[in-house]
Amino acid sequence: MNTYLTTKDEKSCCGCLSCVYSCPTGAISVENRFDAFAFPTVDAAKCVGCDKCRKVCPNDCAEAVISPIRRTFALKHKSDETRKRSSSGGAFTAISDCLMEDGYKVYGAVFDGTYRHVMHVGSASKDDRDRMRISKYVESSLKDVYPALKAELDAGQRVFFTGTPCQVAGLKAFLGKEYDSLFTMDFVCHGVFSPKLMSDYIELLSNGSKIAYFAFRDKTNSTWEASEKPTIQCEDTSNLRYLPYCYRLISRSFGHRPSCSACKYAQSSRPSDITVGDLWSAGWLCPELKDDLGVSFLSVNTDKGQALLDHLKESCTLRELDKEKAVSSAEHLNRPSRPSYINDMFWKYYKRHSPRKTIELYGGDSLKSKLMRKPFEYINAKRR
Ligand SMILES: Cc1cc2nc3c(=O)[nH]c(=O)nc-3n(C[C@H](O)[C@H](O)[C@H](O)COP(=O)(O)OP(=O)(O)OC[C@H]3O[C@@H](n4cnc5c(N)ncnc54)[C@H](O)[C@@H]3O)c2cc1C
Ligand code: SF4
Ligand code: SF4
Ligand code: SF4
Which residue among 118, 218, 273, 306 is least enclosed by CB atoms within 10 Å? Predict the structure, then answer.
């Protein structure tokens, strides 16, 4: 077997849990790790060597679940209110509206009530679906999701699953067969952040107080292009100076899942029916559509994706793009994120110091922080 379960190479596991729910003897469970990323572990005493865990691993069967992008589009939801409450042009809302009206249940990522954790849930109501809007740049837990979803599909329920490309690939590998009643959407993906780091960051930001709202992106007080900064409403506002630290940590690739810098799905063949993303190159590819509320990139990858396209015309403005240009302008349809070569040092420091000290040093811009990073950033730049 060539998967994480035998090699223990962290870069070859995206944490989809497909193996956990496929093992016939229940030999695989989820490790309890400091960074809180989901990793499987095998109880050798229960393993019968059937190899099923390898066959369902999206790291090992990418070729079986991907299809080349067929057509590419710029998409803008016709409702400005919807775009304001979405990461880019509101593609997810438009697609889920269409499918829900056709009886589909939607699966996507939501914050829990404390805003410290992100998890996938299924929903049949539009109000509940709205909690899935806006990107959460942290690993979303798929605990119990694949088996529940399979049971629903087998019972005749139509399902729309949205997630990272590796989560969609993991689901397809877990299901092991095509379902006409399953529609999937992934996104252009730069990677996910550690759930432990996320939860500690939110705790620090809110100073442990109750949170009424948190989002990684905010268009209510800024334009789409400047929206990549978090917003929070909490009882204690004394620590809000830490708001910019989040994107600094993300952009410096601290706390990224190891598999994200070796991602098998950072390419122009996709595991889903439709892929969406931020069309940052809108000003160049379709200047007539660009404005301050955002434009989505959308690619059609399968017949199902193509069939849905006609229904999106009612709620959205769509413009077909030159496929080569659109694909080459989306970085993570071409290559994975670059790793931070001091990520190991980051985690060693984190284990020895408080979350506050770690976040201040690695997400900060103080002289101490800059001096600490300088030699390593130089090495990073040389290696690229
Ligand atoms: C971790 C992550 C990395 C991304 N990286 C890029 C990138 O490099 N380039 C790019 O162009 N676009 C990237 N995106 C996609 C982009 O941020 C928007 O989601 C996309 O433009 C769709 O916008 P929308 O207006 O249609 O979606 P929205 O209405 O904002 O819908 C968000 C959708 O994303 C899903 N989602 C949110 N958070 C998660 C999560 N943690 N795990 C799984 N699913 C989630 C929701 O379930 C929902 O389906 C990323 C998104 C995420 C979550
Ligand atoms: S080889 Fe079979 S029994 Fe052993 S862990 Fe993998 S799926 Fe479970
Ligand atoms: S199936 Fe998923 S969780 Fe299991 S080893 Fe493969 S990538 Fe990791
Ligand atoms: S970058 Fe790749 S491995 Fe990381 S979350 Fe996205 S699809 Fe999964």
Answer: 306
pTM of the model: 0.96
Q: How many domains does the chain have?
A: 2
d(CA 26, CA 19): 10
**Which residues have CB under 8 Å from 280's CB, separation 6+?**
225, 329
Q: For residues 34 and 89, is the Cβ–Cβ distance under 8 A?
A: no
What's the CA-to-centroid distance between 18 and ligand 2, angstroms?
A: 12
Q: Which of 291, 294, 285 is nearest to 224 (CA)?
A: 294
Q: Return the half-sphere exposure (C-beta side, CA atoms, 13 A cut-off) of residue 132.
A: 27
Say whether pLDDT at 373 is over 80: no
Q: Which residues contact 109 (CB under 8 A, 6 or more apart)?
A: 118, 119, 120, 132, 136, 140, 162, 163
pLDDT tens, residue by residue, 117-129: 999 999 999 999 9
Q: What angle do CA 287, 292, 294 make, to 5 degrees?
A: 75
The closest alpha carbon to 173, from 269, 65, 67, belongs to: 65
If asked whether residues 229 and 102 sit together in one domain, one would say no
**Ligand 1: which atom is nearest the Cα of residue 83?**
25
Residue ending a domain, choose from 314, 333, 352: 333
Q: What is the number of the ligand 2 atom nearest to the C-alpha of 1?
A: 1
Radius of gyration for the alpha carbons in the chain, expressed in angstroms and rounded: 21
Q: Report the distance separating Cα 173 and Cα 158, nearest Å.
A: 18
| Residue 276: strand pairing partners | 187, 298
Distance CA 2, CA 240 (A): 45
40 lines ligand 3 (CB under 6 A): yes
Residue range of the domain that includes 92 = 63-192+258-333
Report if residue 102 sits inside a domain.
yes
For 42-97, what is each residue's pLDDT tens digit? 999 999 999 999 999 999 888 889 999 999 999 999 999 999 999 999 999 999 99
* Amino acid at residue number 3: T
